UniProtKB/TrEMBL annotation:
Residues 1-22 form the signal peptide. Residues 271-563 form the Endonuclease/exonuclease/phosphatase domain. Pfam families: Exo_endo_phos. PANTHER family: ENDONUCLEASE/EXONUCLEASE/PHOSPHATASE FAMILY PROTEIN (AFU_ORTHOLOGUE AFUA_3G09210), ENDONUCLEASE_EXONUCLEASE_PHOSPHATASE FAMILY PROTEIN (AFU_ORTHOLOGUE AFUA_3G09210). SUPFAM superfamilies: DNase I-like (SSF56219). GO terms for molecular function: endonuclease activity. This is ExeM/NucH family extracellular endonuclease. InterPro entries: Endo/exonu/phosph_ase_sf, Endo/exonuclease/phosphatase, ExeM-like.
Length: 572
């Protein structure tokens, strides 16, 4: 066995830990604030310098030092913390003198030591700096490497937020919104900079939190403490990260079941059920799950069905628009029929639902379902369907409505209390795949923005020129468009009312990477303005931890989908 490498290692460690001939501590050195400078990068990058500081946090690949409070400068733009890229075992509280080369990595200023000396052991570590969020990029840079503490809200879950534990969370002063939920993207692009929220990550191996805690976006973090390890990637703005050593959490209460006032004659609801697929009947009557969407086996399907049914029973709507149901017909083994039968088994006779069954099914893997209670609503004539082949054309003669991704729109007229009310049930193309458009990012609308915009124009034309006449009209479904995006603007311009406008608080139906917004909408004709008795975007899904999958075997309704149900109360 060759012992030479081990001997060399021990000699090296001995050289690092032996005291110098004369105590070097206190001799001239560059302060940490001097090394950090008041800009994004150190003015001494690439140079060999000496500094001193107190160890306040260890990490697998190094440790942080900080200038004691009594020796810090008076410049708030300069950080008093510094990362030391060394695996040497150190103890918190040790005052170190280090000599090495200064460099930058992921916007973090670091010193890679050639010489290290323990000057003394302090009775404690430097006091944490109190943060008040939000901070600008420059303010984050000014506390890089320092001990900090503060309070915040949970504003996002990360890929590391596992089913049993979570090693990281997004936190900010307030919930974060999609830019195009609030205004056209050009007007608010600067309002959602990444530095407005921080990544709270476990500093050690222990998780920050256990997912048995019903943690939701908006949950309070009354106290966190750790070290600022702000980092960035090429071409990106600074993204602050705090490696947390202490964290307190106060879960946000979950919303109660809907409770409707007596003066309501009609409850209308829209709900994206997140890919309800029930497989295909194979040999010996066994169900086979061949599709990449939805449940992957019978037990997952059973859990998904039970949770969706509990949710729909709680909504207790008279007419339901359900998006993302497998497009496999209406036969005995279809997904639509299975969900309908499961729902009706939980209803009294007066509350039973029926399906609207259009002949035109479309070509997409998913379809939109329209369910109604015949005890409350009676269909007037057959359902009408908007699709590519009966769509109004544009100026070049091309159909405005494109069947690619835009599911056929069901337009059913009902009679309710001697009045007719027409409901258009839709699900427009998602932002998830390309439509070959040249201006996909128009007004920040993302992929297929033009396709959705054209589909809305086609629907407006259909309702005006081809649909049956009705006293009142509703458009319900997943538009895949946030409120200020282009597809919805023609509806506003034509006088349609958005049901969310009747809510006293800002609503949301979807959460994408910690940014909230409304992809799901209910629009109503002006004739219904005086008939509205309430609106609810029931936040049971979008703000929940996505680690709780729709297929989890639980009695809870929370996270039964990734969209929140939209509920409109009317008195006709």
């Amino acid at each position: 066995m060759c012992r030479t490498p081990l001997i060399r290692l021990w000699l090296l460690l001995g050289l690092l830990t032996l005291p110098a001939a004369a105590d070097p501590c206190g001799a001239a050195y560059h302060t940490i604030a001097d090394i950090q400078g008041d800009g994004q990068h150190s003015p001494y990058a690439g140079q060999r310098l000496t500094t001193e500081g107190v160890v306040h946090q260890r990490a697998p690949f190094g440790f942080w030092i900080q200038t004691p409070a009594a020796q810090q400068d008076d410049n708030p733009a300069t950080s008093e913390g510094l990362f030391i890229a060394s695996r040497r075992l150190v103890k918190t509280g040790q005052r170190m003198r280090l000599t090495g080369r200064i460099s930058e990595r992921h916007s973090i200023t670091r010193l890679t030591p050639e010489h290290m000396y323990v000057c003394a052991t302090e009775p404690g570590v430097p006091q944490a700096t109190r943060l008040t969020l939000p901070l600008t990029a420059a303010q984050w840079e000014a506390v890089e490497g320092m001990r900090v503490e503060g309070h915040a809200l949970v504003s996002g879950f990360t890929e590391q937020s596992g089913i049993l534990s979570g090693s990281s969370l997004w936190a900010s002063a307030a919930l974060m919104w999609q830019p195009t939920e609030l205004a056209p993207a050009a007007a608010v692009r600067g309002q959602n900079n990444r530095h407005e929220r921080l990544l709270l990550q476990a500093a050690g191996r222990q998780p920050l939190w256990r997912s048995q805690l019903p943690l939701r976006l908006g949950s309070r973090i009354p106290f966190f403490r750790g070290v600022v390890d702000s980092f960035t990637r090429p071409g990106q703005a600074i993204q602050p990260r705090v490696l947390a050593t202490e964290l307190q959490l106060e879960p946000q209460p979950r919303p109660a079941l809907p409770d409707y006032p007596p003066a309501v004659s009609l409850v209308v609801a829209g709900f994206n059920v997140n890919n309800y697929f029930n497989g295909v009947l194979g040999p010996q009557g066994k169900m086979q799950f061949r599709h990449s969407r939805g449940a992957g086996n019978p037990s997952q399907l059973l859990a998904q069905t039970q949770r969706l049914v509990r949710t729909l029973v709680a909504i207790n709507a008279d007419v339901l628009v359900l998006n993302e149901v497998e497009n496999d017909g209406f036969g005995a083994h279809s997904a639509a029929r299975q969900l309908l039968d499961a729902l009706n088994r939980e209803q009294e006779k007066s509350g039973l639902y029926r399906l609207i069954t259009p002949a035109h099914k479309g070509s997409d893997a998913i379809r939109t379902l329209l369910l109604y209670r015949p005890a409350v609503l009676q269909p007037v004539a057959a359902v009408q369907v908007l699709h590519q082949h009966n769509s109004a054309p544009d100026a070049q003669g091309k159909a405005l409505f494109n069947d690619y991704g835009n599911r056929p729109v069901l337009i059913q007229t009902f009679r309710h209390r001697q009045q007719t009310i027409q409901l258009a049930a839709l699900h427009l193309k998602s932002k998830g795949s390309s439509c070959g458009e040249t201006a996909q990012q128009q007004n920040g609308g993302g992929r297929c923005n033009q396709s959705r915009s054209r589909a809305v124009l086609a629907l407006q034309h259909f309702l005006k020129h081809q649909a049956l006449a009705a006293d009142h009209r509703l458009i319900v479904g997943d538009f895949n468009s946030y409120t200020a995006e282009q597809p919805l603007q023609p509806l506003f311009q034509a006088g349609w009312l958005r049901a969310a406008g009747f809510s006293e608080t800002r609503s949301h139906s979807y959460n994408y990477r910690g940014l909230l917004g409304n992809l799901d909408h209910i629009f109503l004709s002006p004739s219904l303005r005086s008939k509205v008795r309430g609106y609810l975007s029931w936040a049971i899904n979008s703000v929940e931890n996505p680690a709780l999958a729709p297929y989890a075997a639980t009695q809870e309704i929370y996270r039964s989908s990734d969209h929140d149900p939209q509920i409109l109360l009317l008195e006709l």
